[in-house]
Amino acid sequence: MPATLTRRRWKPLALATSAVLVGLTLPALTATPAGATTTAYDDTYYADAIGKTGPSLKSSLHTIISDQTTISYSAVWTALKVTDQDPNNSNNVKLLYSGISRSKSLNGGATGNWNREHVWAQSHGDFGTSAGPGTDLHHLRPEDVQVNSIRGNKDFDNGGSSFTNSGGSLTDSNSFEPRDAVKGDVARMILYMAVRYEGGDSWPDLEPNDAVTNGSVPYHGRLSVLKQWNDEDPPDAFEENRNQVIYDTYQHNRNPFIDHPEWVESIW
């Protein structure tokens, strides 16, 4: 007589495994923050920030990165030709939102030129182009003149429609979504500005929020989306090199969220 087959119900792997391992002692697991990084600057430049979180971390980073050499707005032209040089063509710069490689010599205000895009829109706090937030290379990037105009002073968010030379970026009536390859770059630039400019050095106190209608107030959004972009698009070689060039050659301060993207979640 054939053996009677007993139908077994499927068990979740975790339950089945625990049944097998009854009586065994497993090693303790130590949680590591997602994406945690270490850098050559942790024992020197970031020494006063390591191990801190929340407001304490933000305050320490503000003190660290405020030790900065400022440059003039006219000097930004020359600097961007170095910080944003196309790694595949030393005669060109790489435009932020459109991803186009364009001749360094085509800087200006005409159609077909590239100009100086303030990623933290200068009207969000009305800081203009004076030395300080208006000339800070950590958020100034080359961009096509017309694309720069389309972005305007819109906050950042998901959604919208394509446009000429968009490179995959999108826009709608009240927000702008950069192409996927630089979403994290944009987030880290905005959050750098929020830590660097805290209102104590004659400049407005810049802060992120979750709005897309900020206009002229010193806020920039949308924070929840910027945090998502920081996670989805970690720093790449271009962004890391840019941070290093600004530190070594121009401002002598760093964007801490390029070195430690996990600090975004630690603060916000």
TrEMBL record:
Comp. bias regions, Low complexity: 158-169
Pfam family, one: Endonuclease_1
Secretion signal, residue range per the UniProt entry: 1-36
Disordered, as annotated region: 151-177
Tree of life domain: Bacteria
Listed SUPFAM superfamilies: His-Me finger endonucleases
Entry annotated with the keyword Acetylation: no
Record keyword Amino-acid biosynthesis present: no
Record key words, sorted: Hydrolase, Nuclease, Signal
Protein name: Ribonuclease
Native species: Streptomyces dengpaensis
Lineage: Bacteria, Bacillati, Actinomycetota, Actinomycetes, Kitasatosporales
